[in-house]
Amino acid sequence: MNEVHQAITAHSQRQHALVRTFIELDAKREAYIEEAVSLCQRGEPFSVQNINEVTKQINELAKNGIVPQRKYVTVDMVKEYVQKLNNKSS
Q: What is the pTM of this model?
């Protein structure tokens, strides 16, 4: 019985670690997105490379079936989002 308990505990700890890593990566991704949006709003050059590097890491974690995948972001997606924000505020 003790072996079963240990196996369940180990499995639960691995899942918890995956979720914790996902939360950290997702927060980092959101910060990169906010940075790109801010730069775009100011008309400054920006890149989506950092966003998509973190997205790739998240999607690797998602292969375990515990956490959701995230979409890759394009420069055009950021520009379209900023345009929508500008249209709402005018």
A: 0.85
